[in-house]
Design goal:
Layout (H helix, E strand, L loop, with lengths): L16 E3 L1 H6 L5 E6 L9 H14 L8 E6 L2 H13 L3 E5 L5 H9 L3 E4 L4 H10 L3 H11 L6 E3 L7 H17 L6 E5 L4 H13 L4 E7 L40 E5 L1 H15 L5 H14 L8 E6 L15
Parallel strand pairs: 2-10, 3-4, 3-6, 4-5, 7-8, 7-10, 8-9
Antiparallel strand pairs: 1-2
The structure holds pyridoxal-5'-phosphate (PLP).
Length: about 325
C-alpha cells in the first residue's frame, strides 16, 4: 500500500527504543538501559511533538489564525519544531532565545525562515534577569509584558500550555508501554518545562503504579556565572528542587517523580561520549545527563535485571560547536 506522507507533522513520534548494550557491557551494569531516541523526529528532537500539538490545538480553538505570527521563548528545540511547522503551514515565526545556546540552533531556525531575538535584546527581559537571574519562568512573564500591545500574535508558551504534557500522555507514554510490552520498571527524563516527565510519567504510572519515575536537574556549578563565564550549560534542563516555588514550571507535576538526580555538564558529556563510543549513537547534552542518572539507577543492587527506559531528547549534531564531542 502506498505510504506517502503529506506533512512533516505526520512524521512525528513513534520513535524507536534502543538498548545500550555496549554501554551496559562497558560499565558492567546488571540492569537494562534502554534509550528512547527522540532525534528520530523530523526535526531531531522531542519538541517536535509539542510544537505540532500546541499549534494544532490553537488552530482548533481559533486562537491561532491565518496571518498570525507564532512566538515562543525557548532554549532552542521548541523553537526549531515550531519554526519548521510554521514554515510548512505558512505562519510567520519569531522566537526569543537564550543567548548562550549552541549556534546550530540559531542556524536551523533561520533556515526555516524564523526570526530569532536574543533575550538580552528585550528590555523587559533584561530587567527581569537583573532582578531574578536567568530564570525562564520570570522571562516568560517579562515577554508577555513586552508583547502586550502587539496584535495578531499567538504565544505558544510551552511552560504553561497543557498540550505540552498532554501530548506526552497521549503518545510518548503509550509508545514506551507498547514497545516494552508493559515491562518498563523505571523511566528517567530531564526536566525543562516538565512536559515530558509529567505526561509520560502519568501515563506509565496509570498502567502500572510501580513504575518508578526519575527526574534530572543540573548541578548549580553547571550554570554560567561571573566566576564561570564560559561554562557550558545543559541546554533545556532547569532546576526544580531546592529552588523557590515560583521558579517551578506550571507544567511540572511534582507528584509524578519518585526521585531525582543532579548532574554536572561534564558528567552529562561523558555519558554521551560513552554512548557514542560503545553504541554508535550521537545524543545531545540533556540525553547524556539522563543517561548518567539512568546509570546510577542501574548500578543499584536492587535494580538488577530491571528495565530502565531513558528519554534522549535530541541529537549530538546540535552540539558540535560546543566542547561536548571535542577531545
Ligand atoms: C535538549 C532538551 N532536553 C530536555 C528538555 C526538557 O524537556 P521538557 O521541557 O519536556 O521538560 C528540553 C526542553 O527544552 C530540551 O530542549
Amino acid at each position: 500500500m502506498e505510504k506517502i506522507n503529506q506533512s512533516i507533522t505526520e512524521l512525528i513520534g513513534r520513535t524507536p527504543l534502543l538498548q545500550l548494550n555496549g554501554y551496559i557491557k562497558e560499565h558492567r551494569l546488571e540492569a537494562d538501559i534502554i534509550g528512547k531516541l527522540e532525534y528520530f523526529n523530523p526535526n531531531q528532537s522531542v519538541k517536535d511533538r509539542i510544537a505540532a500539538a500546541m499549534i494544532d490545538d490553537a488552530e482548533k480553538k481559533g486562537k491561532l489564525k491565518k496571518g498570525d505570527t507564532i512566538i515562543e521563548l525557548t532554549s532552542g528545540n521548541t523553537g526549531i519544531g515550531l519554526a519548521a511547522i510554521a514554515a510548512a503551514k505558512g505562519y510567520p515565526f519569531r522566537v526569543y532565545i537564550q543567548d548562550q545556546v549552541s549556534k546550530e540552533r540559531f542556524q536551523v531556525i533561520h533556515a526555516f525562515g524564523g526570526k530569532t531575538v536574543k533575550l538580552t535584546e528585550v528590555p523587559e527581559i533584561v530587567e527581569s534577569m537583573e532582578k531574578y537571574g536567568a530564570d525562564f519562568i520570570e522571562c516568560v512573564k517579562a515577554l508577555e509584558r513586552a508583547v502586550a500591545d502587539e496584535k495578531n500574535i499567538w504565544f505558544a508558551d510551552q511552560t504553561r500550555n497543557k498540550e505540552n504534557p498532554n501530548i506526552h500522555y497521549k503518545t510518548t507514554g503509550p509508545e514506551i508501554w507498547q514497545d516494552t510490552d508493559g515491562k518498563v520498571d523505571i523511566f528517567v527524563a530531564c526536566v525543562g518545562t516538565g512536559g515530558t516527565i509529567s505526561g509520560t510519567g502519568r501515563y506509565l504510572k496509570e498502567q502500572n503504579p510501580n513504575v518508578k519515575v526519575i527526574a534530572v536537574q543540573p548541578t548549580p556549578e553547571s550554570f554560567v556565572s561571573d566566576e564561570r563565564p564560559d561554562q557550558e550549560e545543559i541546554t533545556g534542563v532547569h532546576p526544580f528542587e531546592n529552588v523557590e516555588e515560583r521558579f517551578i514550571p506550571a507544567n511540572l507535576d511534582r507528584s509524578i517523580y519518585d526521585g531525582w538526580y543532579e548532574v554536572s555538564t561534564e558528567q552529562a558529556y561523558q555519558a554521551a561520549r560513552d554512548a557514542a563510543a560503545h553504541d554508535g549513537i550521537l545524543i545531545g547534552a540533556s540525553s547524556g545527563a539522563a543517561l548518567w542518572a539512568a546509570h546510577q539507577e542501574a548500578a543499584k543492587p536492587e535494580n538488577k535485571g530491571k528495565k530502565i527506559v531513558v528519554l534522549f531528547p535530541d541529537t549530538g549534531l546540535r552540539y558540535l560547536s560546543t566542547h561536548m564531542y571535542k577531545e
